[in-house]
Amino acid sequence: MAKVGILELVLRHLVKLFERRGARYIFSGGVSYGVELASFLFFYYVAHLESGVANACSLFVALLVNYLLAHHFVFIDYAKNVKRSLPRYVLLVSFNIAASSVLVSLLVSHFGLKAYLVKPVVSACFAAWTYVAYKKFVFLKSAEPL
Length: 146
Description:
Layout (H helix, E strand, L loop, with lengths): L5 H12 L3 H26 L4 H24 L7 H29 L4 H24 L8
Helix pairs in contact: 2-3, 2-5, 3-4, 4-5
């Protein structure tokens, strides 16, 4: 019987873990959010944009990464119709950008909360319900109507 190395064991568990859509969603969300947060911090602290504008810009930067991961990695067992999913994704993201930008701006500008604390909390709230919206509205199984 061959000894299994720690790396091989970890890889087996990761493969098994990524068989679950929820794990893939959390992973892709982490990657997308890392891109979003890094760009938000750049736009707000380096480019000195207003917090709401910095939020909107950072969301746009993360859009492509998130859509590609959701379409090709998270919802791989769902319909691959880009003509159907992309407009719905854009609609959902447009709402997310508007609503989260207003919320971030309100909490930072009007209530004086720290932007680096507000942004993660607002993003986490939006991520929680976006998973359901992806599944029920954006990336429908091919047999499912709207």
